[in-house]
Structures are given as C-alpha cells and as structure tokens.
Amino acid sequence: MGVSELEDSSRLLDEKLLLFMDQLALLEEKRATLNSLIEQGWFSMSKARYSMGNKHVSALQYASEIEPLVSVHARTLDNGEVDFCTERVKQKCSNEAGKDARLIEDIGPQEEGVRRRIKPKKDITEKDAREEASSEKVPEVTPVRKGDQNPQQDPLKWFGILVPQSLKQAQSSFKQVIELSAEIATLQTAVLNTRQELKHSMKDKHILQEEASAAQLDKEAD
Amino acid sequence: MAELSFNVNHGYLEGLVRGMKAGILTRTDYHNLAQCDTLEDMKLHLQTTDYGKMLSSSEEDLTVSMVDSKLRENLLTEFSCLRSNALPPLSTFLDYITYSYMIDNVVMLITGALKQRDVAELLPRCHPLGAFDQMAAVGIARTPTELYSAILVDTPLAQFFQDAVSESNLDEMEAEILRSKLFKAYLESFHSFCKTIGGDTKDIMCPVLEFEADRRAFIITVNSFGTDLSCTDRSALYPSCGKLYPEGLCLLARAEDHEQVKAVANCYPAYKIIFDDPEPGSGFKTLEDRFFEQEVKLNTLAFLQQFHFGVFYSYIKLKEQESRNIVWIAECVTQRQKSKIHNYIPIFQLN
C-alpha cells in the first residue's frame, strides 16, 4: 500500500518536473523572441529616421497625453495562476464619437486602461508601448475626449501620412511585442505556480518515504 | 563665356566650397568610425577629421540626437560663410537651397502644434538652414489659407502657395498635402530658375532637380499604398519638372501596388536600375537607400566642371548624406547592430 502510494507520488513529481522544464523552455524561447522583436523595432525606427530625417521620428511627434489602444486584462484562476490577455480597443463609429464630444471636460491624465509607458531612451518614442504585466481590470470609465480630435487614430499617422516601410515594420514589431508580453506574464505566473506545486509534491514524497522506511523497520524488527 | 567672367563675382566662393569638399569623409574615415564601440570613440575619431572639436564643446551626455544637431550646426556655419559673401545670382541660388528646409520646418511646426507641443520645444529642433523670422507664429494657423495670409505672406515661401491654399483644417493629412504641394511648386520654380541661368549651371542642376522630382513622385506613390490618400489627390502632388512628366506621372497616378510602380520605372533606364531586384548576396537596401545612392552619384558629377553654381548645391547635399551616414553609424554603435553598420553610402569612392 505504502509502496504504491510512493510510486504514485514519484510519478506525479516526475510529471510536474517535466511540465516545469517544458514551461521554462517555452518561457526562454518567448523571452528571446521578445528581445529580438524589440531590437528589430528600435532598429526599424532608426532606418525610418535615416530616410525621414532625425527630428521627424522623435518625441516631438506625439502629444503628452495619449490614450492607449491596447488594454491588459488580468484574471485570477482557481489554481492561483493569473491569466493576462490583451484587448485592442475597438474603433468607434463616428456618431458615437459625436455623443462623447458633448462631455468635453479636461480631467487631466485619463485613467482608461493602462497608461502608455514612454521609454526615456534619448528622445526616441515607442508606439503602442508595453504595459506592465500586473495591471488591474479596465475600469468602466466613459472616455472623455477633446472636441474635434479623432480618438482612435493609428499612431503611425503621428509621423505623417506618407511614412516609409521601415516605420510600418517598426509598428508591427511593437504590436507583436505587446501580445507576447502578456503571454510571457501568464507563463511566468504559471512557472512560479508549478515550482510551488513541485515543492509541495517533493515534501509529500519525503513524508511518504519516511513512513515507508519506518514501516519497513517495524517489519524487520518483528 | 562663363569662364571669363565667373571668377569676378563667384571665384572666391567656388574656391572655398572646393576646399570644404576636400574635407568630406573618406572610406578610411568611415571604416574607422564603424570600428568604434561607443559614441565617445566616434567623437575621438571625428576630431581627426575636418569636424575637429565639434562634439567636444558640449557638456551634456553624448547622444545620437546631439550628434545630429551638431552636424547640422556645422553645416549651417559653412553655409552662412558662403551665403554672406554671395552676390546675385548666386545669392538667389543659395536662397533656393534653403527653401526646402523652410518647408520642412513649417510642416514640423504645424504638426507639433496639432500635438499641443510648445513652440519653445519645437524651435530648437527645426533645421537651422531653414530658419526664418515668422517661424514662432506658424503653429497658430488653422488652415493653409490662414497660414499664407497671416504668417507666410512676407516670407520667401509665399511664392509657392498658389496651389496650396485651401480652407480645410490643418490635420495630419492636410499638413502632408501642404508639404508636398509647397515642395512641388518650389522644385518647379528652382528648375526654371536654373534654366534661366543657363550654361553649365543648367546642364548640371537640371538633371539633378529632375531626378529629385521623379524621386518624390515614386516615393509618394509607394508610401501612399494602404493610406487614405486617394489616387486623384496623389497626382496633384507630383512635381512636373522631371523625366516622368507627363506619361509616367499619369501611369503612376493609376498605380495601385508595387508591381505597377515597378512597371512604370522599367520604361526609364535610370529608374529601372533602382527598382530592379538586388543581386543575390548584397545586403537588402530599401527603396529610399537606392534613391540616396543615385543622388550621391549625380551630385559628385558637379565637381567635374568649373564656373557653375551646381557645386554649391551638390556640396550641401553631399554633406547632408555624410550627416546621415555618421548618424546611421552612431545608431548602429549604440544599438549594437554591427551587422548593418556598412549600409552607409560612401561619397567619393576614389579618395
């Protein structure tokens, strides 16, 4: 009886260990992809600067108050893991935007979703900036906008209408980065979770082993 | 006949510009710069060139943006030296060179104002060669007509506003259209000015400006795919002083994808090479890169003749390319992307 329990416990431990290793390998792979996408994005922006002029792709081209186009939803699952998923804010149709325009009220920095992070690297900008992994659910705030501004604008347009290919490539790299960072955050919590489970299983197995060896000694003593 | 009278008014300045041309960075200089690991190393290497102590004078941390600003200031110093001693018609010619920078500055100020950026923040970033008195007021205008009648009417840019006036609000699309229309008028005006000067200036400058006109037509077309700019709007932006006018421009106006643009380019031998697929083994070059290369080739030809104004234009354009090269190398160094560092365009190959 004790032996089969021990066997089960060992098998469970093995499975957990393999899962842990798989998750770690996946995490490393995703991190490597993330790093290379970010490098690619920055480099494509440098190429765009080469074609357009250094000061035409810089902090001057975006406003100091921006609304995010992507929000991150965090959801705690039953097993303690946290699941992060990204959601693109849908394009509003024009009559809805008109209704909102009546609520014109400058309330300062807008708390919709997660604020964009601007990387303070020299004076280069990052469109669709990465949000931090641990964010709260998006509050149901009616978006307040200034009158004649188009709220859901493609950030690519900040740099002009006729932008070179390299800038479009930079944008798509950074978009992928956002999706990937949510996946990595989820995976990280899963990895930590698995590690905890691994520890518990290890402890359980030790207890069972001690019981089994104690039972063995008793038998031999008899 | 120009050989007999040119030096009376312009000989000193031609001598000056040829002296400055000798300071353009060579392949060895670029090779040394590409070996650097930090911007500080690059600063040291640049000290051995004609740039001298340009970067050493500032107290702030060295960034790529700062390198770019210093290179611009350097160009401004050299240009002012030429302009302040110039007599007509060279003075008008040199002024024409500055108008393209002015147009860029105007559009940057407008788009900055759209983003509620402070004028004090925008002005230092404007190109110094395109500075004019009324710059600070540009951000106030709401429509192109207002911009013209209230602010730019007393500036040299006023002459380029015939087609560009409109009552539509200045948003990103209108700013882009304004830029292209002003530039079109400017290029056509410059082209006819060079034609009136005649002689070697016309022989050197007109092909260069025609290339510029065609380049703009191609780039506008290619970059407009996937945007809100319609074909009809697009065709109004093409300068008409190039080789593509009129048939090529009609075809370009109707093009809807890259293949159709390539088909148009294939009708013109000079542009066929630019749009051709690259040889296997050579690094990938963007369309803009190839146009820059061709521009450098055309501009170096100006120095093979004497007693004309083309050397001044070509010198400015070649120095601009040099700035782009140095900034590119600086970006590769700071981002540790050494594999692409050799994508700069060396200027005088046989140095």
TrEMBL record, chain A:
Top-rank taxon: Eukaryota
Spans annotated as Disordered: 112-153
Keywords tagged on the record: Coiled coil, Cytoplasmic vesicle, Endoplasmic reticulum, Endosome, Lysosome
Location in or out of the cell: Cytoplasmic vesicle, COPI-coated vesicle; Endoplasmic reticulum-Golgi intermediate compartment; Endosome; Lysosome
A GO molecular function held by the record: unfolded protein binding
Assembly notes: Accessory component of the multisubunit proton-transporting vacuolar (V)-ATPase protein pump.
Protein name: Vacuolar ATPase assembly protein VMA22
Organism per entry: Perca fluviatilis (European perch)
Lineage: Eukaryota, Metazoa, Chordata, Craniata, Vertebrata
TrEMBL record, chain B:
One of the record's GO molecular function terms: proton-transporting ATPase activity, rotational mechanism
This protein's GO CC annotations: endosome; proton-transporting V-type ATPase, V0 domain
Domain of life: Eukaryota
Gene3D superfamilies according to UniProt: ATP synthase (C/AC39) subunit, domain 3, V-type ATP synthase subunit C domain
Keywords, alphabetical: Hydrogen ion transport, Ion transport, Transport
Quaternary context: V-ATPase is a heteromultimeric enzyme made up of two complexes: the ATP-hydrolytic V1 complex and the proton translocation V0 complex. The V1 complex consists of three catalytic AB heterodimers that form a heterohexamer, three peripheral stalks each consisting of EG heterodimers, one central rotor including subunits D and F, and the regulatory subunits C and H. The proton translocation complex V0 consists of the proton transport subunit a, a ring of proteolipid subunits c9c'', rotary subunit d, subunits e and f, and the accessory subunits ATP6AP1/Ac45 and ATP6AP2/PRR.
Function: Subunit of the V0 complex of vacuolar(H+)-ATPase (V-ATPase), a multisubunit enzyme composed of a peripheral complex (V1) that hydrolyzes ATP and a membrane integral complex (V0) that translocates protons. V-ATPase is responsible for acidifying and maintaining the pH of intracellular compartments and in some cell types, is targeted to the plasma membrane, where it is responsible for acidifying the extracellular environment. May play a role in coupling of proton transport and ATP hydrolysis. Regulator of osteoclast fusion and bone formation.
Family: Belongs to the V-ATPase V0D/AC39 subunit family.
Protein's recorded name: V-type proton ATPase subunit
Organism from which the protein derives: Perca fluviatilis (European perch)
